[in-house]
Amino acid sequence: MSKVVVTKFQSLKTGKGKHASSVGEKRVRNADTGQFVTVRTLDGASKTFGKDLTYVFSRNVAKARRDNKKVSGVTDRVPGKV
């Protein structure tokens, strides 16, 4: 049986210097709608690849929860098909 652990993700900032990560962040325009979209890229050869992947995943989950909250009013359900 597995053990469930609930904890906050450590804040991982993109930047320069000692605390820099290998996560790149760009804002590009979507070809279909013309709206801006944030695209994050990872360096596969990074020593901190695991932490960087966790950071990107947590940001994607947070965005999905915000979008679900707007549509259905609840963060942990998938909105119905229209």
Number of strands: 2
Order of helices and strands: EEH
Query: How would you state the average pLDDT, rounded?
Result: 77
Percent helix, as a range, is: 25-40%
Largest sheet: 2 strands, antiparallel
The number of helices is 1
Description of the molecule:
- This protein has 82 residues and is α+β, with helices and mostly antiparallel strands.
- The protein has one helix at 49-72; strands spanning 23-29, 36-42.
- The protein has a two-stranded antiparallel sheet with strand order 1-2.
- The longest helix has 24 residues, at 49-72.
Protein topology:
Blueprint: E1 23-29, E2 36-42, H1 49-72
Antiparallel strand pairs: 1-2
Quickly list its features.
single chain, 82 residues, alpha+beta, two-stranded antiparallel sheet, 1 helix, flat
Describe, in short, the structure shown.
This protein has one helix spanning 49-72, and strands spanning 23-29, 36-42.
